[in-house]
Design brief:
The protein is α+β, with helices and mostly antiparallel strands and about 400 residues long. Helices cover about 20% and strands about 40% of the residues.
Amino acid sequence: MKKSNFTIKILNLHSSISYLVATVFSLISLQTFSHLNSIRTLLALLILLIFKPVHFVHAQQLNKPPLSVVQKVMLYYNGGAELTSREGASFMRIAEINITAMIFDGVYQDFDLKDNLIEEGYFYEGHKRGLQTEYFADRSVKSVIDYLENDFVIWQMKNSSKEDIVLNGTGKFTIPFYFATGTTFQPKWKQGNVEGEFQFGKRVGAWTYFDTSNNKLEEEFYEQGKFTHRIHYEAGNSVELDYRKDITLSLRSLLEETMAFEQVYFTNANAAMIKGIDYPSTFNRPPTFAGGLKRLLTLLTSRIEVPETMSVLLRANINEEGLVTSCIVERGVSQQKDAALVELVRAFDKKFFPYIKKGKPYSSTLYIPIYGGPTGLELIKKLPFDFIQEE
């Protein structure tokens, strides 16, 4: 069988021109871009379209499965939120997974090994969204947290004595959080604790962030749910900032969303997931990445600094087991950055999923474009799901 080639297409032909024009006007309105940078970005992207021939087609022409190809699966996790075997499990999950993009997308329920419900909620396009409820062993509610796109609201929370800390969106609390340190391109996750208060679902007063040694890191101030300012503390000094601290409440959620797996039992994410998935004999899917190809593009774009007006094109060969057998640069910007991107793809090589044709896996080639700077990240954020095609 001839190996299939797939290219990640950022936009179709009609929306490409419209989007590029719209991008310029949106960039002009942002303080971080000057008019000159906006025009330069437009010209660079237009040049890419002109000199890199692309066969743009509409999604319905590709005979791809619809995005609603969702299956209910049963998965096992260890205490570190890694996919594991039934024998090594700390809890079990029954969840809906979009098997086209390989992302959680729908209702999930977590059970302990005695089949007691310990958590339930909803994933939207790979991320927890909406109300997530956690339970004590006696099945009474431990917490109810509303996950928004860039925020959260605690509606109910009890301590270990089952006393209400937050009730009906009102109360003071202290909870752990995780934050990234280092550079955007090489982040490291650290844990801390945040003290805050909600009143009827709105942030109020001072929210204080501490590291695990109880050193004050940040303070944020709110009035009736509206952020006013933030103070960052470091080495005895402080500075006032006009934006909120970027945190995540659960490192476990990050591991689950990226389909982390226990390497003692599995060679890659595909091996960890394959037992729970039943591909129909009519099912076709391009090669993809744990958490979706948008996650892959975000990782590559954010961790390697490709110049603003330039792009890189990588070619990755993925075998029927979902392993990257080779990765080369088709179009690069410099030896150093090209090598770093190839090395990064290699670092993620156990997170790919193979091309599926009529329910069976096959080897394939995936072309991966990487656009530089903030513009590249903005393009990725606005990508539809139908941005990959077979050539």
